Predict the structure.
Amino acid sequence: MKIKAILTVMCAVATAAVMPTTASAQAFPTKPVTLVIPFAAGGPTDLLGRALAQSMAAALGTSVIVENRTGAGGTVAGGVVARAQADGHTLLLHHIGMSTAPGLYRKLAFDPMKDFEHIGQVADVPMTVIGRPGLPAKTPQELIAWMQKEKQTANLAHAGLGAASQLCGMLLQQSIGAQSTTVPFQGTAPALTALLGGQVDVMCDQTTQTIPHIKGGKVQLYAVTTPERLKPLPDTLTLREAGLKNFEVVVWHGLYAPKGTPAPVLAALNTALRKSLKDPALVKRLDEVGVQVVAENLQTPDGLRNHLKSEIDRWGALIRQAGTYAD
Ligand code: MLT
């Protein structure tokens, strides 16, 4: 252990000895809060995280610093926050990947139910299926036929095992009975750069990131992954309308703190979250890119905990069926 670390531990022990024992006596926040994002800067989770951080900072009265800890489909960030000091100053914004990780990763450095305090659900983000400029397919039906014909010569990009783009790509391939070559990135921001440059052919990505590129005519848009069409893309077919019955991927998000964070701190964080999700500037900004803030009853610890548990069960069964694992 380094000297600085020893001194820090000694100070903490000395402070604990003179502090009142009731958690409610503690002040929060006492310094900037770090919001850990599991994927690359500039991508969909990062965009949502930075927008949320801005509103949370105003609600908490301190800076909220975004830190991107990429790798292994978001599971690196999960491990970092699970082991962080449980004082409310380190938080994790994660998506649906939190519920798929236990099924996908045999060696997972955290338990999503036991190693975190669940602050609340945040927002649901739809996905789009997009292709590189110049891809011969022009409609969703043509894309499906192209992927079925090309098989492994088609490159399907995603953000790592357990990323929303990987789950969506896996379901797409299963639904059309065609196996493409999958190309993992640290987030869909670098994946999109590769797609724009023509190095990969197709990907599923969240509207937070794709709508500006779609509107700018930089990528080909084939379909949306939601059961209903989207308000910002009213003329775009759903994959269901394109013939893939029951297809649905919506990327839900939750806010987490390390296990053991004191109850009064969690209450302050939940109040700040709920206040942020009512911020008209945030809601408008999210609405423009197809993002739906979740209902108020889901912006709660139980709202997140119950949804996470049911999603772990649902995806665990699907993943066992698909036989996809990482060691
Ligand atoms: C990202 O921010 O890169 C995405 O959320 C990754 C994904 O899950 O597809």
Observations:
- The pocket of D-malate is lined by residues 39-40, 43-46, 95, 97, 159, 163-165, 187-189 (CB under 6 Å).
- The radius of gyration is 21 Å.
- The domain at 126-224 is CATH 3.40.190.10 (D-Maltodextrin-Binding Protein; domain 2).
- The mean pLDDT is 91.
